[in-house]
Each structure stands twice: as C-alpha cells, then as structure tokens.
Amino acid sequence: MSNAIDLKQAAAARAAELVEDGMNVGLGSGSTAYKFVSLLAERVRNGLKIVGVPTSEITRQLAIKEGITVSTLDETPSLDMTVDGADEMTRSLHLIKGGGGCLLWEKIVAVASSRNVVIADGSKLVETLGRFPLPIEVNKFGLEATRRAIINTFTKCGLNGEITVRQTEDGQVFVTDGGHLILDAALNSIPDPEKLSVQLNLVPGVVENGLFVGISTDAIIATETGLVEWSRV
Q: Which pLDDT score, from 0 to 100, does residue 232 have?
C-alpha cells in the first residue's frame, strides 16, 4: 500500500467483505466510498443480492451504472449497514463529514442503519477534530442572519474561526442535493464535538452540521503497515 489511493482501496475492499447476502446497505459518498461501491458491485455481479440506499445523487448514479439495485429510505427505511468515508475522525469514532457536500443525506442514512462502518486512510485520524473545516448545511433564506447566529454559537462554546460560503470550482455558490447551502467553518480545534453539534442544530436556518458523534460503530483504517479495525464500545 504505497499511496493514498492504494490505502483507500484496501479499506474499501475490507468493508465490501462485510456485506452479506440479503442486506440493505447504505452507500456513502466521496472518493473512498465510491471505491467501496465499485468493489461491492463486483460481488453483486458474482451473485450477491443486496439493496443499496445512496447518500447522494452521484452515488445513486454510480450504483445504477455498476448494476446495484438501488432504493430510497422511503422504500427501505431500515438498513443493516452503511459504509462511508470521513474527512476527519478520532479514535472515539467522532467524525467530521461533508467535504463533498452530502452531510445531510449521509447523516439521515447513517442514523437509519444498525451498523455504520467508516473507511479511511490513516491521514484522516486525528486526536481532536477541527483541523478540517466544519461543514454546516444551511437554508438559503436569511443566510447572513444564520451566519451571525452561528458565530454567536461558536463564541458561547469558546470557539472562533473564519466562516465561508462554499463555492464550486467555477466560482458559483455550491448547492447540495437537498437544495441548501454550506458554510465551512475553520475552527482548528473542536474539543467538545457533542456539545457543539447540539448547539449548532438549535440555530434557526441550520439544517444539519458535519459533526457525526455517536453514529459510527466501526472503523477500517488503512495505514502503511496494514489495516487497523476497531469498534465503538
């Protein structure tokens, strides 16, 4: 495993092995999760029978292209397992997600799952969350008022950092699959992610935040020396 691509492939391959016949599986978003979808599709073509529930429109299109039967949470509201990546994670399986802009759908799917497996390379593992900017999905209406309320929330939690409206590569405002905007907060350190998550979701205009606390159950981390796996007790 000589580079990040190989590491992601290794973690995704191990996660694909965990899927059993007849499962309803949440399909994550992002580069590592897409590798999982493709590897899972190989097993489907070899006879594995599963139903996949995508966490983004891109994942849905990929799954269909790869031959995976897809569903929605309305049709399949209870999932056996979700496999997804992370932008940042701790040993306690607290995560920051949303770098790709799919955090709301990812969190909805994850909470509907009995088991949540996070797959990543070792660079995503940190002692304290916050190095990666925290994505916050917000309603378009009242954006500036919402931004100010978020800043006040950070202040009350002893945090501060620059907040920017996410844009696409061509300079347009990024819009999520759910039709919302994303504010990225460069906080550097989040010592109490559980408290911050609760406080952010009390702000009118905040749809969801990228702190995944107490949701993930298992981790598969690919390092230069091999795979490391553990579960949350």
A: 86
The pTM assigned to this predicted structure is 0.95
Catalytic positions are: 106
Give percent above pLDDT 90 in the chain: 95
Beta strands in the chain (DSSP E): 24-27, 51-54, 81-84, 88-89, 95-96, 116-121, 134-138, 162-165, 181-186, 206-209, 211-212, 218-223, 226-231
User: Which CATH number, 2.70.40.10, 3.40.50.300, 3.40.50.1360, 2.60.40.1930, labels domain 4-125+213-224?
Assistant: 3.40.50.1360
- Is 100 annotated as contributing to ligand binding? yes
pLDDT at res. 233: 65
Residue 124, annotated as binding a ligand: yes
Alpha-carbon dihedral sign for residues 3, 9, 11, 14:
negative
4-125+213-224 and 134-208, same CATH topology: no
29 is in an annotated binding site: yes
User: Given CA atoms 185, 27, 89, 121 in this order, what sign does their dihedral have?
Assistant: negative
Locate 139 and state its tokens.
Answer: 């309603």
**Residue 113's beta-bridge partner residues?**
79
**What distance in Å separates the CA atoms of residue 169 and residue 173, rounded to the nearest whole number?**
9
| Residue type at 101 in one-letter notation | G
- 32 appears as a binding residue in the annotation: yes
Domain ranges of the chain: 4-125+213-224, 134-208
What stretches in the chain show pLDDT beneath 50?
1
Say which CATH class 134-208 falls into: alpha beta
Residue 31 contacts residue 119 (beta carbons within 8 Å) = no
